Amino acid sequence: MTNRRTTLQWVLAASLSALAHRVRSASAPAVTGARGYGTDPDVERAYEPRELWPLTLSVSERQTAKALADVIIPADDRSPSASAVGVVDFIDEWVSAPYPQQLADRDVVLYGLAWMNAESGRRFDRDFADLNDREQQAICDDIGSERSAARVFGEASRFFAVFRDLTAGGFYTTPEGRKDLQYIGNIPLTHFDGPPIDLLQALGLALPTKPS
After folding, report:
1. pLDDT digits (tens, 9 = 90+) for 111-138
2. How many structural domains is the chain composed of?
3. Which domain holds residue 156?
4. What's the CA gap between 162 and 95, in Å, rounded?
């Protein structure tokens, strides 16, 4: 794929915006059989997987999700891969949650993971997780552009867009992802000297410094 930082910088704003929309939508009540369902979890408590609701992805589906997440965000010399920081766990929790948006995404993701293996079998006679990098890339390239791929691949391209959003959103909200973006927020400071003067000048918010 194209250099991942260049590509993901293009899609990150849209991805996180879409994820934020999903999070906002998730606050709406839903009919669910999950025990203990509610809108006010104890934010000071660390919940264990499966504690709030049963998880959805099978072992095979998690393998496919891991392979695809690592195609989208592979490891490099600056940060680990998506799966290495728990993105598959995040996606599994997301599609397992009993909220309207998550229930909709669950259908899309489960269909898409099954499609990836079916398409991999059709082209290469193996599951997606067992393909080499070139073979995985070939399939992802075909469904990676929702607009151009929709005419041929339809729902598969929609799945890729949703899965890419979840992968980027999951990765870039981890400490490793924030470091990869060189994000420096949420760090306590002993003092703040204000924005650099050269930045203020570039924005027209400060007068140029007079030569000494």
Report:
1. 999 999 999 999 999 999 999 999 999 9
2. 1
3. 4-25+53-183
4. 11
